[in-house]
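Try this one yourself first.
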């Protein structure tokens, strides 16, 4: 049941990403006077991972939610979704490497 809930929430956000991407691109001229103010819109891209992690409460649930939302966004044609998928794959590779390296053991 947990995986179905996580997937349903993630897919819903993956679809919402398409509208949010269009809004973010449309508001670039509005925020031209202060580009860092455009970062206010970045919160929605963080929500799937946070919300799935809060709802499911299992190890890896937040990662699963963010990754599935990014994959759905790519499948539906988002230009930003591929960046999210690559960043999630980078997280998969980097955590075990850094966790068990001598850098983190000091």
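Now uncover the answer:
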């Amino acid at each position: 049941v947990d995986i179905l809930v996580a997937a349903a929430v993630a897919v819903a956000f993956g679809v919402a990403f398409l509208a949010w991407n269009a809004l973010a691109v449309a508001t670039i001229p509005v925020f031209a006077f202060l580009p860092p103010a455009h970062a206010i819109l970045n919160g929605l891209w963080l929500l799937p991972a946070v919300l799935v992690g809060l709802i499911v409460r299992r190890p890896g649930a937040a990662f699963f939610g963010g990754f599935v939302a990014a994959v759905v966004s790519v499948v539906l044609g988002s230009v930003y979704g591929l960046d999210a998928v690559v960043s999630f794959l980078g997280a998969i590779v980097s955590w075990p490497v850094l966790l068990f390296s001598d850098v983190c053991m000091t």
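Discussion: The helical segments are 2-26, 47-56, 61-75, 81-99, 102-105. The chain has a mean pLDDT of 82.
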